[in-house]
Amino acid sequence: MDSNFISIGSRGVSIPTGLKNIPPPLIEGKNDDPKLRWANPGKIQEVDNAHGWVSKNGEPFEIYPLRRAIKEGLVQKFSGATWEVAKKRYKGDVFMPAGWRRGDAIPQYVAALGEGWAHGRVESKLVSGGRNENVVGKVEIPAPGKPSVPTKMPRRDWSRDELLVVINLYQQLTFGKLHARNPAVIELARRLERSEGSVAMKLSNFASLDPALKLRGIKGLKGASELDRTVWAEFYNDPNEAVPASEGLLRKLFEVDEESELEVRAQEGFLVHRRPPTGPTETIGSVKLRRGQEYFRNAVLNNFGGRCGVTGLSVRALLVASHILPWGSHDKERLNVRNGLSLSRLHDAAFDQYLITFDEQLRLMISPRLQSELSQRAMSENFGAYAGEALCLPEEAVFPEPAFLAEHRRVFSSKS
Description:
The protein is of the alpha+beta class. 30% of the residues lie in helices and 19% in strands. It has three domains: 5-140, no CATH class; 160-299, no CATH class; 305-415, no CATH class. It is built from twelve helices and 16 strands. Strand 1 (5-9) and strand 2 form a beta hairpin. Helix 2 (160-171) crosses helix 7 (239-253), helix 6 crosses helix 7 (239-253) and helix 7 (239-253) packs across helix 8 (284-303).
């Protein structure tokens, strides 16, 4: 995308892409002239995937240098705007036609520039065939002098519900991701109507209370309040109640219905997926159970960097948050991230059947039964190739609880 130009047409404005080979007619100036301007001859279809400025129906438009268009009042710039596309929010600058006024309908094309936004516009309606579905969304323009997400916001005390939401996110991010530039932190701050910095600081306050980090010499940020400590204790002493409650608060905050899943990814932020039909209506108990399972999966997979700890496989749909101590017989550890391993579906099944385990140095151990099958290519490639190798964990990850793995090895040995 070349953000030095803007196209202006009857249906709105857009930041053009693919300007390497612009065809004539050139209305004024030369290709190297800062005052250049083009007009669509009505014959252009697509040039270098130049979405945002071409017209398939001969609709006229003009392309101007962006600075010139702003200076001459050909477009209006609105900073601090937000737009939501496919359940993901972006923030940056948007540009409207010169004649647009607040209260008017949003035009079909709105030029948009923001971090992580790869397109030059947001479209307000789906066109025939749905070819523009990846850019259709809702644009929100802040009131004059009031950005949609202020960098500085009035100080106010944290509520218990807010802290339950923040500690939920804390458990789903590794220590190195607890900063104000993280997409998940940015989005949560917007939803809470707080600054990114305040959310990042609260995450770091919780880090100061985390015994797993203390074992690694990480102190977090001092200054945790009494309410911080109370919520921490509530979350970790009674996770089977606190975790589903925090998941419910998070879903309400993000306006996610019960037919959808809310997922956290460190590099992408919050994602919403439609869940496959579950059959009969869920009871309150089953909803709590599912919310706990979804939380555990996100937390464990993110702790492993979204990869299988054995193979490094990063296809999230093929990963499972495996319980070291079985879910059914260890209810107090069901939602403990240190009771989880991120494994491929194949390795999860083998781990669940005690065909593999991990030693004190987290190295893969293979049962005699599997060793006898290593002549098979599939067994050799998926198990033999990784025997004796340590689990792959990010440097800032929370390590599995040694006592839990010791218990798994005990059962593994008894079955060998």
